[in-house]
Amino acid sequence: MANWFLKLRRRPVPSLSSTPAGTIIYAIGDIHGRLDLLQQLEAKVMRDAADSDAERRLIICLGDYIDRGADSYGVIEHLRQRPPESFERICLMGNHESYLLRFIDDSSVAANWLDNGGAATLSSYGVRSPARLGYDVSATDLQATWRSSLPASHEEFLHSLVSSHREGDYFFTHAGVRPGVPLDRQDSQDLMWIRDEFTADKRDFGAVVVHGHTIVVEPENLPNRIGVDTGAYETGRLTCAVLQGRERRFLVS
Question: 34-43, 105-114, 234-243: lowest mean pLDDT where?
Fold first, then answer.
């Protein structure tokens, strides 16, 4: 399996789908607080792009920048800065960013967010997560502390995230799409949360969907979709799909 993955990363795979002429795209999977892996992967992206003749270089981050890993703060601070020189960068909304933003306004989601990795995000912002929510601290008190601890610049960045982006024959989103629904009519909740109904479907979605959200041992390179969430926070492998013309390949931190 490992040897196959190395070959897949090194050798371009032709497809019928294509990026816009002169454009190379690096689509990065779920980061989940691993700033170290993001920086390692960006260094590889820059070296890779230096060997490309593409006139336009685009990094697309597929969401889930926070939770679970140790440095959610650092990831957000990094992504809100200017992209590497000569690159564009588009950041999409993941379900974990959505949870964070919901907690600002709705304290009832506190327990679910904490159980799904939010405690690590709070810690990275200097907020102690309660051992027992409701006993050590109430959800509304924790919400108030969080509101005062989240920098305005970070909240502004999070609100700027979009749910999808299209380039040529590729459609980028966090989780996937609802099969049978046109891409321009997709619901944002599906784009952030859908899983089995999407990953099990073999039909043409109207574009090749490039997504994260569903963890896979190796990146999935299928006719109708490309999955690149290789569980970075746990495996130490952050993956991006490299798309140029009709070629597809992968880089990993």
Answer: 105-114
| pLDDT at residue 55 tops 60 | yes
Q: Which amino acid is at 52?
A: S
Q: Does domain 2-94+163-252 have CATH number 3.60.21.10?
A: yes
**How far is residue 64 from each of residues 88, 92, 130, 178, measured CA to CA in Å?**
19, 9, 23, 19
What's the whole-model pTM score? 0.92
Residue 6 pLDDT exceeds 90: no
